[in-house]
Design goal:
The radius of gyration is 24 Å and the shape is elongated. It has 223 residues and is mostly helical. Helix 1 packs across helix 4, helix 1 crosses helix 6 and helix 8 packs antiparallel against helix 9. It has a domain of 142 residues: Orthogonal Bundle (Tetracycline Repressor, domain 2), CATH 1.10.357. It has nine helices and no strands.
Length: 223
Amino acid sequence: MARKRTPQGSADEPGRRTPPAARTPRGSYAVGDERRQRILDTAVDHFARWGFHASSLARIAKDAGITQGGLLHHFPSKEDLLLHVLERADATDREGFLTHEFESAAEMFSMLVRLAEHDGARVGQTRMFNVLAAEAGDPGHPAHAYFAHRYAELVEVMAGVLRRAAHAGELRPDTDAVAVAHEVAAVLDGLRIQWGLDPRGFDLAGRFRAFVERVLRALSVSG
């Protein structure tokens, strides 16, 4: 007697396996996501070593274990790959700092120190930011607009917190919020560069913590 067939055309047997056709879409997405992440991780390493212009899609694809055509399937150009790398790298900073509602200057500086600690734990990514930020000084660089906007947004967020802190009496009323914000951003970047030259011997978070503590003591009403 013929066995009953399911609508998918497979035998209706106890313990039968799901037909391969039913598993294909989900499996394809997982493979695609894994490949995409591998490309991004490889690109971070290449951009950190050679910058944008000296990196090639062919070498990135080879080190990621795929063909250049496979890479271009996910990222149609080197510029597109660069912007996706920066967007992914920036996600932590945006979620942890740029969109946070700070209640005090002290809380903001504490969060910046935690971000510095995070930078110290992601060597390749932080080195990549150092290299690309320097390159992006050229207005023709594909990341120029990204870094210009990123610094403007960072200064705007910090200055806003400092102004509110001065208004609330936490900081001196004559605090130049914009100037302090620019100084803090510049010092953090400078410390990142020094750390990039000697990650094991240079305490990025510790040096930055000492700096912001001096800033707070100088600006705080209570001292």
